[in-house]
Please model this.
Amino acid sequence: MSHTLVSLACHAYGIAAVVYLAYLVRQSEALATAGRVLVGGGLALHGVALFELLGVQSGRPVGLAQGFSALAFLLLAIFLFLDVRYRRPVIGAFLTPLALAALLPGLLLQGGQAPLPPGVRQPLLPLHITLALVGLAAFAVAAGVGVMYVLMERQVKAKRFGLLFSRLPSLEFLDTLNRRLVVWGFMALSITLATGAFFVGTAPGPWTVDGKTLATLVAWAVFAALLVARSVAGWRGRRVAFLTMAGFCLVMVSFLSSYDVSSPSAATLGMP
Amino acid sequence: MELICIGLSHRTAPLNVRERLALPESRQVDVLQRLAQAPVEALWVSTCNRVEVYLFAPDAAMARQRALTELQVLGGVEALEHLYEHQGEAALVHLFRVACSLDSMVLGEAQILGQVKEAFERGQGAGAVRGELMRACAAAFSCAKRVRTETAIGRAATSMAAAAVQLASKVFDGLAGKTVLVVGAGEMGELAARHLKQAGASKLYVTNRTLSRAEALAAEVGGQARPFEDLLGLVAAADVVVCSTASQVPLFTRDNVGALGRGRRGRPLFMVDLAVPRDIDPAVGTLDWVHAYDVDDIQKFVADNAAARAEEAQKAGVLVAQEVARFVKERALREGTPVLARLRQRAEAIARSEVERTLGALGDGLNDKQRKSIEAMGRAIVNKLLHEPTARLRAVGPEGEGNRLAGAAAELFGLLEEEVGTAAAAPSGMATPVQVATGGK
Model:
């Protein structure tokens, strides 16, 4: 049942991606509305599937496939919120393909789930995972917006008044959106780290710094430095966009290292 | 007499070539006085997008050569490579199109008409625009008025200043809360200030070398005037700078703008240079936080929007063709009438002298009635002889065939030689209707 719903949602997202790319070429309110409806419909189907799935899994996605699926869901939910709030449908041309790319492994890796190790059966676990995924999705959107910023800045600097120049939002808007998304993502990441540290503190046995923990800590430090540099030194623009992309890559490494990607059929959920 | 136009514009010449020919007003007057030696008339149109000289001369080749020499001296040999030329009716059409803003960087922009009018007034002041060129300009201005009222080109168009505001919207998410600085309180500065204020700029500073002009403009658009000496301080506080001064050297260089970077803490600066010669050194744009655009960049930008205005421009083009045709007709009528009048004068003079000779030969043997009959016969012969050519000339109209017939009549009856003799006697030499009538444009 949930697989069918996700598959339907995936089709809706796919058509939405085509619609938003068409919007990039030919700006029309009808296309923007169609994109919004398709993403909204896809999210509803996807949400039902996730709700159903997580209900039987104590509120947590299990395995890389579900992780990616939940990431795509949150990424598109953030996008839809931004689209409704700021009415900049062109962002969809960049984010819907990204969400589709995140969903594909979910469809390909369907089924690879493993039982949760007994040491991580914590009541706070669903919150920890949800916030980690929200943070990751926020950083993914921020990185997508960062790509848009870099593209737009190139057009503005090179004075190329082509399609991207006429369609992309202003540099200031993209930079401000990037800042807001990074702040949200950073807050989610900080709480994820805090709950993770709590799990480690309460777990039996010695604590060791693995690759995932290291990547998460470095990503947190990158985003913390970025926010400080923004408010204290006035950093903005291209430099911040590139740092956001780098930070997103680190968080992605942390996300991927939560799973045993070498053996999808035996994907296991790790802990910070 | 023929109208010729020689010039270069944004279509043919890069900014650095146009800059060399962008002369201050006093030098324009000097050039005009050199070019417009009677009977030649001259008009020097100089905007940030074009430099054109219009000449109305009996010897087009000589006038053209003189203009080319002048342009080469001012703009160097390179300038000659970018020139275009129009002659006769094509030159007239070009003048009309320029005045109607159909040849502008931004189709239908309003400033060009004002700029051509200024050039016209300057030409009149210098005594370079007198007769036919004055009438041509007046017709072009009235055509521009018609185009503006009868087509939507004015409404569809964006001025250079409006284009600058649109460009700013690609850097900033609206101008609310932004500080804007307008450097130069001329016509372009005024338009820029109005557009920026209309776009929602929160703070608008105007600076100008003559503070009183800045104050006048600031009062008009709801901004604040600031002394020109504070220029860099004002830029430090600004988000958008639009300059359009007549300065012959750049006001902003990479060094003096770059020095403001530390204080701005990465805050972007959008600079638009509507001046030619440029107020902003191109190197300023290489600063990471500065987005600098000059008039050529704006041309590139508006080229994308040109399609939307193409339809209106087409309608305007039809109006221009109508107005040019009307002007040509009126001119030919104006100048063709003397051919008939002179022909009649000549014929009447011949008839009179022959009647007098005949009456003299017949002596006193004629009574009054007979005398009057002979005089009436002379007039009747003139009338009968001239009736057909007069009717035909009027029937075919002044254009094309009409011009040819009038010219042929002038030549057949020796009116041309008579006119040249008159012109040689009169130093102004501008009233040369026969030649104009025969030569068309």
Remarks:
- Confidence is low (pLDDT under 50) at residues 261-272 of chain A.
